[in-house]
């Protein structure tokens, strides 16, 4: 495949993605060393917020690794990495509250999250097939295959775009919970923002890369169609 002008933008977006991942790890490490005044662990914060929102049936479980925190909508369980589960730092309570935000979204049938869940089986299929169709189309110079690949790839891109409001909303909920429940003080909000904003940037960068790749494929497709 030849080098396309759009590749410059993709490279820039990829660099932003690497920088965002660096910021996530850096901010998490920095604010993991700052204890929140409440003295509560991430697990305790998560349990408290879940109970306050009537989600007594949602368990909070530790999971190995770092930054492996997630909410499982199928099993309906909040899983926190061990540093977050057992930690009582600004980073720990921020991440814990964010993941609980997803659980509350699920309970309230938050629109973007509901759409994301409905799309997942389809995207799981199309994202696996699209690369082979695109590669085969370019190698065989078959623009019909490229066109189908573009359509399938667009589902994955749309899925990532839908993920953005889901993550931003979960972070917004996390900040609100932490402040209104008194788990953090005003001077600690800066740390919470640093941790959650850095994490959000990784999703933005990933979505941008995928969107630019899609636009590149579309431009190549129409250029090839005109040349035929």
From TrEMBL:
<feature type="transmembrane region" description="Helical">
    <location>
        <begin position="6"/>
        <end position="22"/>
    </location>
</feature>
<keyword id="KW-0812">Transmembrane</keyword>
<feature type="transmembrane region" description="Helical">
    <location>
        <begin position="146"/>
        <end position="166"/>
    </location>
</feature>
<dbReference type="Pfam" id="PF04298">
    <property type="entry name" value="Zn_peptidase_2"/>
</dbReference>
<protein>
    <submittedName>
        <fullName>Zinc metallopeptidase</fullName>
    </submittedName>
</protein>
<keyword id="KW-1133">Transmembrane helix</keyword>
<dbReference type="InterPro" id="IPR007395">
    <property type="entry name" value="Zn_peptidase_2"/>
</dbReference>
<feature type="transmembrane region" description="Helical">
    <location>
        <begin position="195"/>
        <end position="222"/>
    </location>
</feature>
<feature type="transmembrane region" description="Helical">
    <location>
        <begin position="122"/>
        <end position="140"/>
    </location>
</feature>
<keyword id="KW-0472">Membrane</keyword>
